[in-house]
Amino acid sequence: MNIKASPLTQKLSAFVALSEIELAVLERLHQRRKSFSVGRDLVHQGQSEQTAYILAAGWVVSYKIQADGSRQIVDFQIPGDFLGLRSVLLHTSDHGIEPIVEIEAAEVLVSDLLQAFAETPRLATAVLWAVSRDEAMVVEHLVGLGRRDADARMAHFLLELGVRLSLVGMGSKEGYACPLTQYHLADALGLSAIHVNRVLRKLREAGLVTFQGGHVTFDDYEGLVALADFDPAYLDQSRPLLP
Amino acid sequence: MNIKASPLTQKLSAFVALSEIELAVLERLHQRRKSFSVGRDLVHQGQSEQTAYILAAGWVVSYKIQADGSRQIVDFQIPGDFLGLRSVLLHTSDHGIEPIVEIEAAEVLVSDLLQAFAETPRLATAVLWAVSRDEAMVVEHLVGLGRRDADARMAHFLLELGVRLSLVGMGSKEGYACPLTQYHLADALGLSAIHVNRVLRKLREAGLVTFQGGHVTFDDYEGLVALADFDPAYLDQSRPLLP
Q: Which of A7, A48, A70, B111 has the highest count of CB atoms within 10 angstroms of its CB?
């Protein structure tokens, strides 16, 4: 694989063996790059007529504000993920998107996608795969929310992020750099910040995983997988489906 | 709109004004029609190398079996919905799909999709819209699961189904025919069957909605919308985005 390939290219390569033309079309989608600072929403919930982005560097959080004003984190996006693709296809954004660190993202309009799909329909299928994979993650979170206890939920979350990051060369079974705070973890997992702190200490003392100083270290990967009952099949990055 | 248009065609028309060619390609996707009986899985959880389907008539349920053997319903599919599209794009199905009534569904292979997308890239964008809309529904369920009380959750569920069904000409603000049992509702909403029964009686006695004899009747649509805090924007069927 080309060492300079964008994270999106690396990610879609897990689904389809990309041709020279497809690679060129993908790189062209990255032309209109912009930087965004921490804490300024890329997309507002309820906003219409907005743009989608491909995240090239950095982490963002997708969230929904409830009627009671509380914030529920839906997911985090990492390099190679689409931001607001759902929002640009649907008329109104059903969620907000906010950078966690300074990020770089490339602007993509529906017309850019249409043009890219016209040039290479395999790319349309690859994007459909990526969106389906995102949906599989949300389903997994939905099913897990009521069924997993706090320890298993945290373990599952840290393992899922690790597998996602490894696909774009930013993680391994050793661990990964992670800019999330305990408040992010709390809002994503439906726990209090104090509870998050307690769970992380418990997992560390059990010799399974250490999350400290912006780094997740898997101390016992297989042990953590067993605790979380983690089966990464839904992340589907074993081999390309389309040759 | 052509009165004989398939439900999928009716549904995608909400996103894109379909040309003659696109209509022909869509109808061709319906060629390999099959009937399936109640209670026999179309797709097994963990199955690989399977087929996707377009549901042409009837209702199905998508579910996940937990490690403890319990069953969590992820969603119901109605005519015009894809079945197992995620499963055919990912290598392994992350869920099972079972007919609730006798159904008709058309078999679709990845190669059929690739060919259709090559002929008309706008169709690829329309399918991407449909998948994004499915994801928005799962996100809505995820956020609602912990936040809505039982009454609001039931009201939201019955309203969402009504809006989805109206898009394919099977429902209105008056109500719709609905083959779901109280056990389906219980497994979908995370309630016990007894609780479902109590909630439905309460909503009926409040003059909001009646679910009886296989029919949902909205007795006070706006009242139910207010109770559920239901905003159908995420279902995105107000007007086509692509002319």
A: A7
Q: Which of residues 20-59 of A touch B (CB under 8 A)?
A: 46
Query: In sequence order, what DSSP letters do the residues of B215-236 get, joined into one string?
Result: EEEESSHHHHHHHHT--GGGG-
Choose the closest CB to A138 out of B142, B147, B234: B142
Which two three-digit tokens encode residue B96?
């099972």
Whether A110 and A209 map to the same domain: the answer is: no
For A71-118, how does the pLDDT look when each residue is reduced to its tens digit (9 = 90+)? 788 889 999 999 888 777 766 667 788 999 999 999 998 888 888 988
Residues 57-86 of B with CB under 8 A from A: 64, 66-68, 70, 72, 74, 85-86
DSSP string across B192-205: -HHHHHHHHHHHHH
Is B132 within 8 Å of chain A by CB?
A: yes
Give the residue among A102, A52, A81, A103 at the shortest CA–CA distance from A165.
A81
Question: Domain containing A46: what range?
Answer: 7-131
B123 shares a domain with B228: no
Tokens read off for B46: 């963990």
CB contact at 8 A, A234 and A140: yes
